[in-house]
Amino acid sequence: MRNRFTAALLAVALAGCSLAPDYKRPEAPVPAAWPEPVQAAGKREAAHTDWRTLFPDPRLQALIATALEHNRDLRIAVARVGEARAQYGISSAERVPNLNLGLSRAAQKIPPQFVGTSDPSGNGVPIVNERNDLSLSSVAFEVDFWGRVASMSESARASYLASEEAQRAARLSIVADVANAYFGLLEMEERLLVGRETLASREKTRALVARGRESGFASNIEILQAEGAVESARAELAVLERQRAAASNWLNQLVGHAPEGLPRGRNLLEQAVGDNLAAGIPSEVLLTRPDVMAAEQRLIAANASIGAARAAFLPKLLLTAAFGVASRGVATLFEGNTGVWSYQPSLSLPLFDGGRLAGNKDIAEARKVIAVAEYEKTIQQAFREVADLLSTRATLIDQRQAAEALLRTQEERFKIAQARYKAGVASFLEVLDAQRELFGAQQGAIQVRRAQLGATAQLYKALGGGG
Which domains does the chain have, with CATH numbers? Predict the structure, then answer.
């Protein structure tokens, strides 16, 4: 009997169908190629490039590794994956019968006055009833005729996969953000170094002008100009100190832990970060981004939820079954003729619920429309982000070459101005102007180098780097 029941149950369960709409990935609402004149060519595919390969600086590698272990945002993402995995496990468990092992004992004593007897004195014998049960039971298992439970399980599975992709996106974002913050800190340290050197240089110039005034070579106005240049450099230095502290605080927050014994790092010029990441074809590259993949999984979950909402309108078959043994005493529990079983199917069909089921179906369909729009919006944002970064990469190459050429020019100009002033053929104002221009060129060259490194880090993230 049990074998026939089990076989029938499996046959009915396997005969179930799904009422969820057939899923079809929406067309990517972006152009088939990157906008001109963006150069998408490159030797490295971001999806197959490990961040250790892209960022060879040992200090940066140690900081990224620490951030991946201690960053709080990433911990939240990991915990959400665990939550979604557990939810998927709960939903999957609804597709198989739950079995319970039960052991119970019941005893009852009936007083003599309630026991039927022919004794006129009424002195009957009390009755004591005992029963011991050992059973294996399945309570209220739903036979999934219409795929309602399967659709709920598929929705939970897609939500779980979406959380995994969201975790990968968070991990990739941490890698890029730590690299960007590290380059920003290097920029501020190098700009601070230039600022200190500039202050020292202007103080030397002020001393030189002061000696010139004593010998009648320099005027009071030149002394005031030299003093102003020193104070201007000191004010700029204070600004750079504040910006350097902010950059350090940002990096510390991203890392989430104060690592000790970090290896020596490299300066901006020594960073061998390649700018040859290949952009590929938009329709292929964008679909591998973790945020796009997470959005698609959420769309799949919404699509499956429609199947569960539709199936709720149809009859629901619940099965409750149990089999085991029962006897008056524990010692005789497994003797012959002690077997017991029960089988209780129930069928229910919703007739009137005030529109609750229809409302749930409308909600599921509306959520799918939202999920489609969010998926398409995510792709569009990804396309714009990559296109902007590709354009930035191309322009920064030219900008860096121009900034370095300008720096060389201003260095030469400052040397000539100093020589002309010492020879008495140029005013101090010419030296001061050349000094200011040189400081600006030095700061600009550092900023461009840092921007180029930061753009590469962000492009690695935008292209869905291998993490």
Answer: 24-89+165-284+373-462 (1.20.1600.10), 97-114+126-143+317-348 (2.20.200.10)
